[in-house]
Amino acid sequence: MVTASHNPKMDNGYKVYWTNGAQIIEPHDKGIKSQILKNLPTIELGEYFDYEKQLVKYPLEPLREKTMNLYFEDALKQISINSQEVNAKCKPIVHTSMHGVGHIFFTNLMKRLGFKEPIAVKEQMLPDPEFSTVIYPNPEEGEGSLNLSFKTADANGCEIVLANDPDADRLAVAEKQKDGNWRIFTGDQLGSMFAYYFVKNYKGDLSKCALVASTVSSKMIKGIAEKYKLRFEETLTGFKWISNKVIDLEKEGYTVLFSYEEAIGFSIGSVVRDKDGVVAGCCFAQLYAQLCEKNMTLSEYLEEIYKDVGYYATKNHYFLCYDPLKMQAAFDGMRNRGEYTKTCGEFPIKYIRDLTTGFDSMQPNKKAILPTSTSSHMITFFFENGATCTIRGSGTEPKLKFYIEYHNADFKVAQETLAKLHKAIVDNFLKPLDYGFDFPKV
Q1: What is the pTM of this model?
Q2: Which of 104, 176, 200, 224 is the most exposed place for a label (fewest CB within 10 A)?
Q3: pLDDT band for position 129 (50/70/90)?
Q4: SS3 for 182?
Q5: What does DSSP say about strands 343-344 and 265-267: parallel, antiparallel, or unpaired?
């Protein structure tokens, strides 16, 4: 199956899915490319642009209603955790589909789960290819894309906002705080809340369950897995890797309760072998419904998790880089011709993993276990104090991304150490002014 990508139209992006329902990975990508090149000389393109002739030869079968109903039925079987009565008592929820396709799917599935109808952000409820009310139609960008949602919530006395991106595969969540301000949770905070919720609500043997996350995501769910005796696996960035790992674990007999990546992408069950913002939103609504019964806020729930497994302070950000040569120069500087640095400012480095070159000082043979790729940059620094920092070039956007995390039982120590480490990494590794990177506008 081939689908359009959510990236800008000038990128001409697409995704290709294999028969297992997940995006293709090796060796299927090379196999498909080989077949295309093998058959290219024999293809007469002209006939493929005669749409009327093609429709006669290959009639289209409308599958929208049938597919939607199958999706809803499958989702209900897999994600119904609360009783309908618990969901019906949930406080009102505001939802935005960000000028995309999510509204009809989210409201339909919420109704089937027993919730009151979510309050839609009307200005963003229907598809609009111009995304006329936002600068960036991406809830990952934070407050700038959620202002109308907050306005709608304030007008209706709601304390929570659930936001899908236009193609409804991501989920952002915000909660109104006691001081009247809105708190937008990070993808890692949401991932931790999801994981904790699924672990606490699972009725079977947790030793036969697993959690999965990308390598740039917080290790907090690894901490949850270790405490509650689940298996944890990490993958490369992207759901093509995450979903295929989930399938492999299922073949081994594990029940994968939850998988995610920090860029607000979440997957629950096997309804979709990819991130799914609709199923994720409905699952999060059930989490919220349970908290409403306890008269507990999301922020209080997150604090409860921190007290159980420790504080995981994270800082994920990026610089804009439109010149591949500048990106190359930055990574060349970090690699230092294979003589990797042993410190970053005041912070000693314990291990280094470079998934571009295949080097991993943590392994006895110095070879990385995770898949490597010479066509993309990714280096992870493991510090003596337990902190980690992964720096990578985005595969879909002109961005140099970095992900920093520090774990400590004391919240204040965790935050203060993270701030110092963040400054050291920017000053010593990323050097945006030296390399000519642009700072984000949002």
Answers
A1: 0.89
A2: 200
A3: confident
A4: strand
A5: unpaired
